[in-house]
């Protein structure tokens, strides 16, 4: 799968800009704040229907304008595919594929597989468990539509059950029969999601460990563990056991919406005991494992976006990462960096075919 061209209208700092891409490697270079990350984000937007960096649609529209349009032309399995996303202030965002509007965004997820590696990934280590669940959900959803639809159904029932618990508390009442209907549904959907998460991690964890091993030259031991109460007890039992607590809290305190991933280095949490370079290596290994997993499942080479990844890594690690990307027989690569020379030196090692696109105050310049 190749992204051949991209046009942006009023997207973040760009008024109107067009790009033609190389089939292998494209590097966006330029000073801080020229919009390198914004171009990568526009490409991300075309795959996921939203920004990776700022999920509030109206804030992705250029200041003092009313709408944005992102227009991408792809070739996938030898067919041209045109994907257009547009958003107008105060209106629902629209995604069209070859002129036809999608009924729901979830139908589009997975059609244009993509992996992004960015400094913003550090949230996976520093933030709460919902960030790590979103990561797992994002990876599985790209190759499993049923997972995403089951997850949406599950989330809806959790919200309904929470409203019911609130209603019980406010009105000083209780209705075991209605609650039981929700419990049964949560149990059904929750078990499917738990099974799929566990199956995914069984494949994913060894790939991740091997990627980290390569990046760190095998000197450091890391682990990734799935933490879910459903691994020992069925959700139905857990819901019954926690009924009093849930009634008191007025929300559902157990279920797959509480699952987490434990990240460790040498047996200690990486958040507290990993250096900045080790944390960055950990995140890159996670994302490269994601790339590998999606490629295996979908049989398509995902687009790989590398946003400012050379920062804070020593030369050896950068070399190992580039070698990993090379060995994995990647598809199309998009890189952003402030240093044109450094980028060119690195990409020349991977491919003879590449394009350096210099962003600045004017039209992009091909170096
Ligand atoms: N909605 C918007 N309207 C106008 N400008 C915006 C909007 N959202 C973001 N920007 C601008 O985009 C610029 C940031 O672009 P981006 O993050 O892509 O820069 P960059 O080239 O990757 O920089 P760095 O090298 O510092 O990472 C900022 O100047 C910011 O003000």
TrEMBL record:
Record's keyword terms, sorted: ATP-binding, Cytoplasm, DNA damage, DNA repair, DNA replication, DNA-binding, Nucleotide-binding, SOS response
Molecular functions (GO terms): ATP binding; single-stranded DNA binding
GO biological process: DNA replication; DNA synthesis involved in DNA repair; double-strand break repair; SOS response
Gene Ontology cellular-component annotations: cytoplasm
Keyword field contains DNA repair: yes
Pfam families per record: SMC_N
Subcellular location: Cytoplasm
Binding, ATP: 30-37
All copies of domain RecF/RecN/SMC N-terminal, residue ranges: 3-349
Superkingdom as given in the UniProt entry: Bacteria
Family: Belongs to the RecF family.
Biological role: The RecF protein is involved in DNA metabolism; it is required for DNA replication and normal SOS inducibility. RecF binds preferentially to single-stranded, linear DNA. It also seems to bind ATP.
Name of the protein: DNA replication and repair protein RecF
Gene: recF
């Amino acid at each position: 799968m190749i992204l051949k061209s991209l046009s942006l209208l009023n997207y973040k700092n760009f008024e109107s800009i067009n790009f033609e891409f190389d089939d292998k490697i494209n590097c966006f270079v330029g000073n801080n704040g020229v919009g390198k990350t914004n171009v990568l984000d526009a490409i991300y937007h075309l795959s996921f229907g939203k920004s990776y960096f700022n999920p509030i649609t109206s804030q992705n529209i250029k200041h003092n304008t009313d709408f944005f349009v992102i227009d991408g032309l792809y070739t996938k399995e030898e067919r041209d595919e045109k994907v257009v996303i547009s958003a107008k202030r105060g209106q629902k965002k629209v995604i069209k594929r070859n002129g036809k509007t999608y009924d729901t965004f979830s139908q589009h997820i997975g059609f244009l597989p993509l992996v992004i590696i960015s400094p913003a990934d550090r949230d996976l280590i520093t933030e709460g468990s919902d960030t790590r669940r979103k990561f797992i959900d994002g990876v599985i959803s790209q190759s499993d539509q049923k997972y995403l639809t089951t997850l949406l159904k599950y989330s809806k029932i959790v919200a309904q059950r929470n409203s019911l618990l609130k209603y019980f508390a406010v009105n000083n009442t209780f209705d075991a029969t209605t609650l039981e209907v929700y419990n049964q549904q949560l149990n059904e959907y929750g078990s499917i999601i738990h099974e799929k998460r566990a199956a995914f991690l069984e494949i994913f964890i060894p790939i991740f460990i091997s990627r980290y091993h390569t990046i760190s030259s095998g000197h450091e031991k890391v682990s990734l563990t799935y933490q879910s109460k459903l691994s020992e007890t069925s959700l139905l039992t857990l819901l019954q056991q926690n009924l009093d607590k849930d009634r008191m809290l007025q929300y559902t305190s157990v279920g797959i919406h509480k699952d987490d991933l434990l990240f460790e280095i040498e047996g200690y949490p990486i958040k507290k005991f990993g250096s900045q370079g080790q944390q960055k290596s950990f995140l890159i290994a996670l994302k490269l494992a994601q790339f590998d997993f999606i490629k295996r499942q979908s049989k398509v080479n995902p687009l790989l976006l590398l946003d400012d990844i050379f920062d804070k890594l020593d030369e050896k690690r950068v070399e190992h990462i580039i070698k990993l990307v090379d060995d994995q027989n990647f598809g199309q690569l998009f890189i952003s960096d402030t240093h044109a020379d450094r980028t060119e030196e690195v990409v020349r090692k991977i491919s003879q075919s590449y394009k350096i696109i210099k962003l600045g105050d004017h039209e992009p310049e091909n170096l």
